[in-house]
């Protein structure tokens, strides 16, 4: 039993299942568990929550829901750390995505997702967490990321988990635990991402075809998984930014036997993809209703009443109409004044370079006629036509001591004596 456990890396019920296939007396599950604890192969620490506290759920057929996530733990020889973009079919636990990327950016995640769409077909739903590569739900300004756009253009319902609830995507999280224990913990440093990708591809094939799964009654994931039929397998609609860099899809090793390679030079190596134009497509953004109830998006105002202040409202807009929804319920539909491209900025007004030419006693404007100003003896000439008179008797003019604080004047009587000193004789 110890040789079986060490060679295959399985525990508990899987040990009993292997002993059942080999024949002979089979110990009880508790006995197997005690033996594994005695030799340090199982952590005896109890769970924080009981198994009965979790609500189990599962889709009824394959290709109905995919769970996607990102996991780290691949340390490279150059000092960096790579990530793994993973995806698991909810019904069969079949691993559909396992791509190693240096940085888990939105573009890298979409490339791995697009490759899986070409290889297995388009699922009905995708369940992810609220990470930035998947959604802009908690980002600054909101809007639609590239992953949301791929789901919308291919008719995929993108579902998001609640914040801080990793058990919702428990199937893909459990795949991360298996990947970490059986592969990543054995290698401390990888030479490059290509080496890690080759090792993960081998583990993925073994996980799908040769490793029994406890939640499937010790069946293999490949036995319950089936990709989209060939007649329904349409090319996915991808943004033009991905069509130039997406790699050719790899043939599935565990779903259907690979056909013999064609010797025809004109046969394309990858299926064609429908390229979507940016002009005329609808967009979907989420905004919060301001306190005034008047929401402004791209210069167009939408009245929603102050009673809805602070509520998130979803705007589905194109160049013809705009739909406003709250919690999936449509509030109103108004004509759209949005354009595919933002309007050009108005040119800045340049400051006039016309300057007046000044001579003593004469002011000449460019394009005007010279005007002689009257001269007042004893006064400095002003070049302004309306300021040639002196301002000696102007009561509103400021003194040259106006920047200093005023001195407080003591009260006096009619003789000019201070009131505070009248009784002092």
How do the strands and helices of this protein lay out in sequence?
Elements: H1 2-8, H2 13-22, H3 29-38, E1 65-75, E2 81-89, E3 95-101, H4 106-120, E4 125-128, H5 146-153, E5 157-160, H6 170-182, H7 193-209, H8 221-224, E6 237-238, H9 240-243, E7 274-275, E8 283-288, E9 294-297, E10 300-303, E11 312-317, E12 321-326, E13 329-335, E14 357-359, E15 362-364, E16 371-372
Parallel strand pairs: 1-4, 4-5, 6-7
Antiparallel strand pairs: 1-2, 2-3, 8-11, 9-10, 11-12, 12-13, 14-15, 15-16
Percentage of residues in strands: 15-25%
Low-confidence stretches: 1-10, 246-280, 361-367
Q: Which overall shape is indicated by the principal axes computed on the Cα atoms?
A: elongated
Termini Cα gap? 121 Å
Q: What name goes with the CATH superfamily of the domain at 58-253?
A: Ribonuclease H-like superfamily/Ribonuclease H
| Mean pLDDT over the full residue set | 75
Largest sheet: 5 strands, mixed
Domain Integrase catalytic: 58-229
Region (Disordered): 251-271, 335-425
Pfam families: rve
Biased composition (Basic residues): 377-425
């Amino acid at each position: 039993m110890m040789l079986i456990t060490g060679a295959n890396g399985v525990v508990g019920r899987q040990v009993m299942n292997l002993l059942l296939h080999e024949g002979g007396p089979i110990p009880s599950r508790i006995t197997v568990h005690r033996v594994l604890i005695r030799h340090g192969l199982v952590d005896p620490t109890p769970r924080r929550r009981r198994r009965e506290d979790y609500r189990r759920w599962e889709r009824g057929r394959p290709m109905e829901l995919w769970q996607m996530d990102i996991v780290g733990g691949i340390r490279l020889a150059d000092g960096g750390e790579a990530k793994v973009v993973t995806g698991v079919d909810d019904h069969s636990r079949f691993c559909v995505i396992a791509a190693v990327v240096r940085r888990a950016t939105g573009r890298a995640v979409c490339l791995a997702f697009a490759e899986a769409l070409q290889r297995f077909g388009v699922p009905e739903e995708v369940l992810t967490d609220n990470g930035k590569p998947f959604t802009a739900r908690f980002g600054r300004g909101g809007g639609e990321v590239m992953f949301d756009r791929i789901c919308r253009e291919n008719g995929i319902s993108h579902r998001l988990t609640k914040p801080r609830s990793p058990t919702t995507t428990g199937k893909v999280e459990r795949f991360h635990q298996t990947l970490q224990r059986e592969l990543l913990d054995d290698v401390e440093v990888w030479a490059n991402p290509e080496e890690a990708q080759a090792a993960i591809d081998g583990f993925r094939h073994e996980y799908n075809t040769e490793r029994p799964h406890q939640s499937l009654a010790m069946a293999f994931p490949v036995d319950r998984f089936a990709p989209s039929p060939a007649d329904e397998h349409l090319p996915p609609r991808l943004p033009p930014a991905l069509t130039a860099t997406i790699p050719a899809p790899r043939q599935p090793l565990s779903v259907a036997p690979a056909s013999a390679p064609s010797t025809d030079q004109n046969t394309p190596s990858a299926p064609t993809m429908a390229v979507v134009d940016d002009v005329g497509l609808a967009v979907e953004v989420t905004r919060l209703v301001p306190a005034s109830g008047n929401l402004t998006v791209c210069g167009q105002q939408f009245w929603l009443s102050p009673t809805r202040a602070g509520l998130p409202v979803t705007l589905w807009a194109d160049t013809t109409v705009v739909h406003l929804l709250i919690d999936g319920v449509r509030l109103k539909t108004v004509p759209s004044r949005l354009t595919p491209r933002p309007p050009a900025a108005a040119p800045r007004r340049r400051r006039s370079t016309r300057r007046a030419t000044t001579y003593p006693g004469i002011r000449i404007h460019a394009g005007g006629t010279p005007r002689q100003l009257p001269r007042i003896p004893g006064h400095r000439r002003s070049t302004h036509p309306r300021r040639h008179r002196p301002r000696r008797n102007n009561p509103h003019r400021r003194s040259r001591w106006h920047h200093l604080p005023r001195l407080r004047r003591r009260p006096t009587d009619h003789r000019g004596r201070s009131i505070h000193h009248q009784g002092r004789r």
